Task: structure prediction
Amino acid sequence: MEVLTLSAHELYERFRRKDLSPVEVAEVYLKRIEEVEGRVGAYLTVDPEGALRQAREAEQRWRKGDGAPLTGVPLAIKDNICTKGLRTTCASRILYNFVPPYDATVIKRLKEQGAVILGKTNMDEFAMGSSTENSSFQLTKNPWGVERTPGGSSGGSAAAVAARECVAALGSDTGGSIRQPAAFCGVVGMKPTYGRVSRYGLVAFASSLDQIGPITRDVEDCALLLEAISGHDPCDSTSAPMPKEDFRACLGEGIEGLRLGVPQEFFIEGMDPEVEASIWEAIRVLEGLGARVEEISLPHTDYAVATYYIICTAEASSNLARYDGVKYGLREGEGDLREMYLETRSRGFGPEVKRRIMLGTYVLSAGYYDAYYRKASQVRTLIREDFDGTFDRCEVIVTPTSPTPAFGLGEKVHDPLQMYLSDIFTISVNLAGVPALSIPCGFSGDGLPIGLQLIGKPFDEATLLRVAHAFQQETDYHLRSPENLTQGGP
Result:
């Protein structure tokens, strides 16, 4: 149906002209979810009643001439972002029946615009994973090949956007959890600068790394959603005191004379040759648009994975200590307090979450703190300084998003180190706190999407969006969609 092909900004025009109504669109998307969820498994919770109520409210706003850019647009939300009255599980048994009493700041801002929330999407438990296979509840499949992973940890959100089960979605990115699934599913995904978007109401994994961001079909929608959710929030002590920006204003400006850096450390042995070929072809397209390309170096990139998995596990160990069966969530064990803690956490957390809690507790323990956590923090500073120095020579850094297209379900789930290495090109961005986005730039011989990563200066998301939009004006990768999802069973 034509409605499913329309982007958020195209829906805005249809609503404004009264060619479509928000209720019609919501009904189309709820029907689509019914048709394809058996093949994809993107959602943990679908809220038809709430979505139709919000759609009716949006319709009233349009009748009064009070429509905003996202009024009536159907969205999906990653299940680690709190939604008042709507179950939020983090794909974990320990929060199976948790219903938040408040909205995250990003949800409040979307509701103020009149967006329609269809439901909550599947993810790796507590955002710990790169394939969405660590969910405690179900498996999400890549719409481009249901035997493949959609990436993670925001795999449900990316799969929902690619499968046309929503117009756009929110995810969270701690080490690549928006960008890698966006690359695997052939959609646009952005990790904003740390502090650009409020984390209030985001269930914490690693507080110094987590950031909420948009997953969309095209760059204009990415800019639209980022505008809606960004801005200072006094409820979040890490929120930057930055004014709201019109991120769409610069999309048509072109990129002639812009300096693009290509880091040698991101073209490594073992990278899929089809990925490498697609990235270089994308760079040639950008050169053809007038950008100047030069090779650069980010010398501490080789230490990023080790540094990340010390810092993020240490912060996870601290953040997940709150799940003790006392205040909310799962409670197990009928004996003393110690037994309750033991039973609750043993049964409530999955294997990957337990692994990271144990690693984090170890690196923070007496006698090991200096050897691991302090040293990792020092290396993190060196990685950030690499980016600072490089941005004296270029405005945007261009890299692959992932070394391979989407890998097979079950292929890496029993080999944690190989799974961790799938984020090798995205992790350093989170350590440095800079913005980055992934856009589709090609397809493998098997028809799987390939992602191009653009990395920018702190709080310069506008330039990233400008480059990405210029690329999409010259290519059609973002216009393609997976076929035949409604045929056959899962």
In short: The first helix runs from residue 8 to 17. The chain is about 40% helix and 10% strand.
